[in-house]
Design goal:
The protein is α/β, with parallel strands linked by helices and about 400 residues long. The protein is about 35% helix and about 15% strand.
Length: about 400
């Protein structure tokens, strides 16, 4: 079906976005859908995808004690630098289990920041699997950012119990330690793989998401509020395919491995991820899963941008891998509110005081709405991907 006024490469995602799957074939039966899609497409910048800023409007943790689990990982390191430089916390605690990474991070921060800023830092060795240690670490903490996880899909498939202990039981430990210490706010990092999971990693993160959402009902007069942020591939982070493609190109490889030419993924920069966590922390009411509006890209195009001129070698999808990723399923749509720069999956069971976003700031999405990397209406081009990678550096 061709509908005038909408670029052919954006028609299908736009029509899916506005529910045209439920209309009769042909333009005449879907004019309202087409007009709505066209209006939103016209609001997009040249190239079809916005490299958005998710920056919070305030210094959201100023004067507060903040702890980040998994603080020596890609996200944790960037989060610590940004918060220390821009948000003036009273104390910023890195909680992780790798003493060497903590030592190296201490040296880097000591060299990068004035002594008065570095004095705000604390480094706490521990594992989210250890509830007693975690409970001790959270004494006096007001804000927890939970980033610790086992994330490698093939490793999780081969070592399921290890993944479950860290991602599921670790999440439960964060909840209990937070409640025991009367922490004010907790934001847990999730993944697009938690939506309709087909692999163990995604299943453990779905269980983690459910644990944090439900924890709001356990808080009672303690008042702790829990929320989740869910986003896609982080450009340039440890485990991302982008550094691999760049390395192969620099080494003069004969080709680049592509799992499947049809594969698509959501992409976000590390700085966008940090900002998204902070701005979600700023507006959270408890029980939400926040999903950013970010661009998609075909993996073949990613390879062409980062390893130009190299032919593609199809190697096949790995165990537990999806052809396309999804962040909001059709079943989630009835609880999903759209805001200007993100979607909010609202909690279904609410036994605490909470005002839904749908009553004021946002609007409910169409019934059956799906937010997936192949039907996304925003697509990154080469310049957009390079901008995201620049944001990682």
């Amino acid at each position: 079906m061709h509908c005038p006024g909408i670029r052919a490469d954006q028609q299908a995602p736009a029509l899916r976005r506005f529910g045209a799957r439920r209309t009769a074939p042909g333009c005449s039966g879907a004019q309202g859908v087409i007009r709505a899609a066209k209006r939103e497409l016209e609001s997009l910048p040249e190239g079809g995808a916005a490299v958005r800023s998710f920056a919070p409007k305030t210094r959201v943790v100023e004067g507060q004690v903040v702890l980040v689990t998994g603080g020596t990982g890609s996200f944790g390191r960037r989060f610590v630098r940004r918060v220390l430089a821009e948000h003036a916390p009273r104390k910023l605690i890195v909680f992780s289990r790798d003493e060497l990474k903590q030592y190296e991070m201490q040296q880097e921060l000591r060299a990068a920041f004035p002594a008065a800023d570095f004095a705000r830092m604390r480094f706490f060795l521990g594992d989210v699997r250890d509830r007693e240690r975690l409970t001790l670490a959270l004494r006096g903490v007001e804000v927890v950012i939970h980033a610790a996880a086992l994330k490698q899909v093939p490793a999780a498939e081969y070592n399921p119990s290890e993944c479950i202990h860290t991602n599921v039981l670790g999440a439960e430990n964060v909840v209990w330690a937070s409640l025991a210490n009367r922490v004010r706010r907790v934001v847990a990092l999730s993944t697009d793989k938690a939506c309709n999971p087909i692999n163990l990693y995604g299943a453990t993160k779905l269980a983690s998401d459910k644990t944090f959402v439900a924890a709001n009902n356990l808080a009672g007069d303690i008042g702790t509020r829990f929320a989740v942020v869910r986003y896609g591939n982080v450009a340039g982070s440890r485990g991302s395919v982008a550094p691999l493609f760049q390395k192969l190109a620099a080494e003069g490889a004969a080709d680049v491995p592509i799992t499947d030419p049809r594969m698509t993924r959501f992409w976000i920069s590390l700085d966008q991820g940090v900002d998204f966590v902070l701005s979600s922390l700023e507006i959270m009411r408890g029980g939400e899963i926040f999903v950013p509006k970010i661009g998609s890209m075909r993996m073949t195009e990613v390879a062409d941008v980062l390893a130009p001129g190299l032919p593609h070698r199809t190697v096949g999808i790995r165990p537990g891998e999806k052809l396309h990723e999804m962040m909001i399923s059709g079943d989630d749509a009835r609880m999903t509110t759209e805001l200007a720069d993100r979607y909010v999956i609202e909690p279904e069971f609410v036994e605490y005081l909470r005002t839904p976003f749908s009553l004021a700031e946002g609007r409910s999405v169409e019934d059956g709405f799906v937010y997936a990397s192949d039907s996304n209406r925003e697509w990154l081009d080469g310049a957009g991907l390079k901008a995201l990678l620049a944001g990682h550096g």
